[in-house]
Amino acid sequence: MSDVKNLVIIGSGPAGHTAAIYAARANLSPFMFEGYVVGGSAGGQLTTTTDVENYPGFPEGVSGPEFMQLFRKQAERFGTEMVGQDVSEVDFSQQPFRIKSDDTEVLAHSVIIATGATASRMGVPNEEKMWNNGMSACAVCDGALPMFRNQPLMVIGGGDTAVEEATYLAKFGSKVYLVHRRDELRASKIMQERALKDPKLEIVWDTVFEDALGQDYVTGARIKNVKTEATKELEVAGIFYAIGHVPNTSVFKGQLDLDEKGYINVVPGTQQTSVEGIFAAGDVHDQKYRQAVTAAGTGCAAALEAERWLAEKGLG
Ligand code: NDP
How many domains does the chain have? Predict the structure, then answer.
């Protein structure tokens, strides 16, 4: 069984690369499938962000793509083998596990899944053009950029994320509209109370977002009241989606326990999935924090757990 890898890592965002750095330094010779399981590109969500200003150790900030190149370089330096392909099929029913992309098939004693999640978008006509030019799906990542300071901003959604992000943006913007499609928020009561108390925050009920307005940068938003059908243009410099995320787990359905939204279930306090020897890290199992630094933290934890598990089983 010499051709069985000790550890295969699926996904190349902060969780995957951190797992690779730790595993490579523990002489596990990890093998990484860099491509995303569902769409997207290698490197994960940060490659679609402009500046990362909240990752400790970068006092001046760092661009998302450059940041992921640094992660990759560090994982490569310690000998991680990488293929830039998406995983299309897995068999976790027996040891060694089988992981397949279109033209590579690998056997592995242990696996770390770090395929992340994709922020949902609405696909409005100007979305592609305005993405990163005033439109974003992460207020915590992008909200503090100079282009949004003291400007009117808008958040779309009615869940905890929407309320949290609107409250966060109210620290920077001159005003924040929280646009929600119903007349009731889904967010927890405590978050709702906070939002309702914030003088800079205005909830726009029963309203859907139709499109972003502007030439090169967002200067406004067209919205429609679903009860009256009336459309209106709001002057805003930033539009933030907070309408949920979809975990990239379609390829693991039927192989691992997933929750009702498709996130991988782990044993509380560990990175262990429902199959021994398979670990999850980052946004693919975390819908609460979803930060690069928390993803990196769980990537480290997953690698340490994989290393211990392999040693206990006398594998690798
Ligand atoms: P949710 O799925 O809870 O909420 C998504 C919101 O977006 C809903 O209000 C939904 O409307 C709205 N929405 C969905 N699709 C569309 C669309 N196409 N157009 C307009 N609106 C749309 O996602 P969250 O990211 O808010 O939360 C995910 C989980 O993470 C939750 O369990 C939440 O509690 C948790 N969380 C916890 C936090 C904390 O504890 N601090 C912080 C952030 C998240 P509708 O209500 O009509 O369905």
Answer: 2
pLDDT digits (tens, 9 = 90+) for 14-33: 999 999 999 999 999 999 99
pTM of the model: 0.80
Same domain, yes or no: 110 and 135: no
Structural tokens at position 162:
């929407």
142 catalytically annotated = yes
Q: Does the annotation count 160 as an active-site position?
A: no
* Pocket of ligand 1 contains residue 160 by CB under 6 Å: yes
45 and 102 belong to one structural domain: yes
Listed in sequence order, the DSSP H helices in the chain are 14-25, 64-77, 127-130, 139-142, 160-169, 189-197, 292-313
Does the beta carbon of 226 lie inside 6 Å of ligand 1?
no
Across-strand partners of 203?
A: 178
Name the residue range of residue 226's domain: 121-241
Shared domain for 199 and 308, answered yes or no, is: no
32-83 pLDDT, tens per residue? 999 854 444 577 777 766 678 889 999 999 988 899 999 999 999 999 999 9
